[in-house]
Amino acid sequence: MKMRLIKISAVFVGVLALLLLTTSVRAQPATGSVSGTVTKDDQPVANARVAILKAPARGQGGANRGGAGGGTANGAAGEKARPQALATTTTDANGHFSFADLAAGDYVIVAGERGEGRGHQRVSVSNGQPASVTVVLRPSPTTNKSTGNN
After folding, report:
1. How large is the average pLDDT for residues 55-84?
2. Rounded to the nearest 10 degrees, how much is the dihedral formed by the CA atoms of 7, 12, 17, 22?
3. Which CATH superfamily, name and number, covers 31-63+74-143?
């Protein structure tokens, strides 16, 4: 009788350990992170707005959604809706930003600062791996308008 109780206890402990191990493996989030710097003319840009978006599949358009035929948010026929930002932040005094707890996949980082221009950069996130990116701001058409006085 005592031997049977020991065997049952051993099986119970084994099953319990297996369940705990399986649960702890599933509980580990499969995420990564992205950090980087926003620059213009090789200088960091403080207080730039930065957003992260899920990247479209390659060959289906990029982060540049402006220009002729560009989409609008009103969903009019024939127009593409702009993707929604998954998260936004602002760069620090050294132009740095970061996004954490991202599922593995491809993303587009979009950055801009009024009067400084806009930039975007595609980045891949792997489970448990930090990714680093530099987003370079370039003058936007509204930042670099001609006065017509040539």
Report:
1. 54
2. 130
3. Carboxypeptidase-like, regulatory domain (2.60.40.1120)
